Amino acid sequence: MTLESLTCMPRPGMLSWRHLAFRAALVLLTTVLLMLDDWIQQRFTSFNQADFELNYFAALCAFNLGLWLCGSRVFVSCILALLAGMELVQLSHISYTGRPLDPIVLAGLFSEFQDVKQVALAEFADHAYVLFAVLVPYLTAWWLFMKFMRPDLRRWQRALGLALVAAGLLSKPYRASYRDLNAFLPGPTRSGLHNSLNTFSFFLVHDVLRDSKVLRHTAHAAPVSDAASPMVSPVESDTRHVWLFVADSLRSEHLGIMGYERATTPRLARRMEDGLIARAGVAAAVSTAATMPLMLNAVREPGQLGQIRTFSTNLFRFAKEAGFKTYWISSQESKLLNDAGSPYIDVSITREDAPQRFRQQGDDALLSLLEEQEWPQKTFVVVLLRSVHAPYEANYQHAREHYARWPDDPSLPREVRGRNAYDNAVLYLDSLLDRMMAKFDKLPGPRHLVITGDHGQLLGTRGMWGHNVLEPEVADVPVLIWSRDASSSVSEPLARRRWVSHFDMARWIAGLLGRDIRYPSAVEGVHYVQGKNLYGANTFMEVHEGLTLEFSDVVSVGHSLPVRPRDPARSLVAR
After folding, report:
1. Of 364, 408, 367, whose CA–CA distance to 387 is shortest?
2. What is the pLDDT of residues 152-206, one digit of tens each?
3. The pLDDT of residue 70
4. How far, in Å, CA of 114 to CA of 92, rounded?
5. Tens digits of residue pLDDT in 217-253
6. C-alpha pair distances (Å), 136 with each of 33, 65, 132, 442, 522
7. Distance between CA 254 and CA 423 in Å, rounded?
8. Whole-number Å distance between alpha carbons of 295 and 292
9. Which residues make Cβ contacts (< 8 Å) with residue 84, sequence separation at least 6?
10. Nearest to 345, CA basis, from 315, 378, 371
11. Is the pLDDT of residue 573 over 60?
12. Strand 379-385 relative to strand 515-518: parallel, antiparallel, unpaired?
């Protein structure tokens, strides 16, 4: 059988399994080719951190099947040219800046095109390999389509092909029409094409079709602060293991160990008897996408995007410089690695790396992933959990007999059902944390584990649910410290506080990693909670310690700091 015969429909009655196998091979081959540019770039630079993601590969296979079924060489040529163009911009940006392209930066490329053009021409030689990385696989794919595209497809096959291509290309712009920027930030470990589709789709909807210029405005009006830069200096530390567990949507007021009326944390309560320190905390922001960069870069004040983007105070960076092996293990999407310090992470495992495992085991998959690691002498580990994220009952569905302590029947009023389901999820998290801490306990040498939430959660208070809004309940997180084989003086700076902000916590962790961070403008007893729009015209609340935490009105980033003068007497009473 010749290749030419395979390009035609088999005759009636003729066995077609070879024909179908050949067609399937073509689909797989062109799919691989559209992912090959990341692999090629990784041969030239470590800045491209794309990993293989099974779900994305399956979606790209369906997209390529659509291209083969559409039956039009002109249409396919246009689509490949579009994708190759996006990838040239994406990989060039990675090569030059060391980070994936995001919608804000893309808008800036167009608004400052002449400056970008001059830089590109001046440094072309250093990044010329990007042309090879993109054009070789895309031209190869184009040749395969031109050579083996079948012209005699039936109408329903062409319709199916166009539908698959349309689904692949239009689903992202459709989501961009009702989702905010945070949902379209790039994931450092995602495929370049995956990031490009997100970035260009958001730009298309908001700055082209709607002509709102929201991204171009954001690129120029991104929040900045005139606060002095933090000072970093080395300090001595004998710590061998530093672990940080971040539970999405964990609110301290619903933990039994924090005085809650329900026994939602019986296992952590037992660890309190053995030295677990529990303090109420103040979240850095009201969304995961904003909190993680702020927390992991030890940012204190609003408007410090430069500090985040340069990783000047990044915890993963400090850990690497101190000889720690670094880990990011998450039951959430890889896009949350954005600005978290991915260039300094040795091992990164997200939900997209093991989708089937997380679907079947939920957050229990994190425990099995921890068990599979062979820990070296020094480790810095960040684990991001989803155990108490809405929908709450889904988190403990696999073991309702153990954790459905409070009724969550759909017939109950929402306020009752929601609170009960959230508390059941906290009970499940309590068990999971205890088992994960048991793994930590087996490590040798001085070691410290911190547990916190990325933000709190509204559970019907004043008729509000969820997070993403600047409300005191959303700023409410716990900060738990578990130290083993270490002097009590190490944890004393946090133990003596009544409230511990995410910045306080991050600064303490930096000390364990051998770095001291000092802010010339820091005011004792004053904290900041930022809104969800970290990369745009953001808002924040200033929080003062007094008899209780006192929250300012919501103000825009750029407002002078502090928002109101600090009252030392009120802060002293709080301690």
Report:
1. 364
2. 888 999 999 999 999 999 999 999 988 877 788 888 899 999 999 999 999 899 8
3. 93
4. 16
5. 554 445 555 667 899 999 999 999 999 999 999 999 9
6. 9, 21, 6, 50, 53
7. 7
8. 5
9. 134, 135, 138
10. 315
11. no
12. unpaired
CA distance 374 to 537: 44
Cβ 517 vs Cβ 510: under 8 Å: yes
AA letter at 213: K
d(CA 447, CA 482): 8
What is the three-state SS of 48-71?
Answer: CCCCCCHHHHHHHHHHHHHHHHHC
pTM for the full model? 0.81
If you count them, how many residues does the chain have?
Answer: 575
Please, which residues bridge with residue 285 across strands? 530
φ, ψ for residue 298, nearest 5 deg:
50, 50
Contact 245, 385 (CB under 8 A): yes
| Residue 244, phi then psi, degrees to nearest 5 | -130, 120
Identify any residues that bridge with 550 across adjacent strands, giving them in sequence order: 544
In whole angstroms, give the CA distance from residue 480 to residue 489: 16
At position 55, the amino acid (one-letter code) is N
Question: Nearest-5° angle of CA 67, CA 70, CA 71?
Answer: 110
> CB count, 10 Å around CB of 115?
11
Residue 292 amino acid letter: M
Q: What is the DSSP string of 468-486?
A: SS--HHHHEEEEEEEEESS
